Protein: MFS transporter
Organism: Knoellia locipacati
Amino acid sequence: MTSTATAAPERLFSSRHLPVATGIIALVTLGAFENRAVISIMPTATRALDGLAWFGAANAASMVTFMVAVAVAGRWVDLVGSRTVLLAGLATFAVAQAVTAAAPSMAVFVAGRGLSGVAEGLIDVSTLVFAARALPEHLRAKVFATFAAAWILPSLLGPGAAGAAEALVGWRLVFLLPSALLVPALLLLLPALRRADVRRVDDPATTVPEAGTPAPVGPAVGLATAVALLSVGGPLAFDGGDHHLAGLLTLAVGALALVATVRAALPAGTLTAAHGVPAVVALRTLLVVAFGGIGGYLPLMLDVTHDVGPALAGISLSITGVFWAVGSAVHGLDAVQHRLDAAARVRLGLALIALGGVGPLLLSLGVLELVPGLAGWALAATGMGLASPSLATEIFTLAPPREQGQATAASQIGASLGSALTTAGGGALIAARHDTLDGGVFALLIGTSVAAAVLALTLTQRLRAEPPSR
């Protein structure tokens, strides 16, 4: 009998990959703290600036600029490498936080949030490319798992820290705190950055594109402009001011721009969820509408309908982070990977989102109390943890190596579009009812998101590259 020596599998946190792993976790943690703290303090900040009617526009601003930044970053990374783009994104992040914190008016506040979207787009794309080029392919799933795990601590501490900072000093400090975390994050990242962009020149997945290779920047700008017009048009038309007609005209122009640009900005076949990459992009968009359309308004809903402060309203964000990580951990189990294909995992996740979304819906109407209502949200977050990494890894499986960067950018643009449109629509409704906000408004928003999850459930079989043979 002979024995065969087998090499131990590479681990994400081995000495070889430790600088990359810790650097990525530091970046994700930084973004998570900023996201959780800012979302939980947004209702307080908009009220302080007498801009509740512009709540939707403030939320949508970063999503709009994110679309353009993603398209620019994808091309930029291929030309100069991930390190330059990543450092530019971190510098933009610091400036954006300062502008928002010092905002004397709602207009400056919205501009600061827009600049934050630019930073997020640069950081997100460069981080994904950085990880893909620095780590072997079999460690990608583990990297995605660390993304979810890195959100746990910020989700637990971020909302409470935001509430405490607001109570002690004021809401402006909340926007400065993430900048303080930038220094330790950068220190952890520096060892990995020194090794960044060391690529095999014969690797087709990392070959610099030829001059003249088209980039989807123009369509992304058009799409972002459409979303911006829709986001601004809602408050203008429905906030009760004397610019009602101007707002309606802005909405009409935005709708026309959306129709004119959406096909060019997304892969062909996305609007019909064609098999393969287009279906992934379509499902990612609907997934964000379903989950983000509920979670984006939970803190405001709790503040308005249950009269809770920022710290308690932010508990929904803590639930999101913890249970999203739980779902991601389940997704990464060998038993789940072997028994359920990507379509089945996405289907299960969407079903949990649709079922769990009923909890916040009934909570907004006063049918459920706080604890059972948020228990439903925990179930939805678990579903997101299952569905999101399944789509993220499937895009690399379906896209050819030379198109993986473009496919990843398209998926992010689709997700940002879904989030921005959900926020713009909700913002218009809130602007129309900002003087008489009640649970019925939030029930309508949450119900629409639950319907999006049900619609997405019918499309999961299209994740296959080709239609199933009969």
About this structure: The domain at 268-470 is CATH 1.20.1250.20 (Growth Hormone; Chain: A;). The chain has 19 helices and no strands. Residues 18-48 form the longest helix (31 residues).
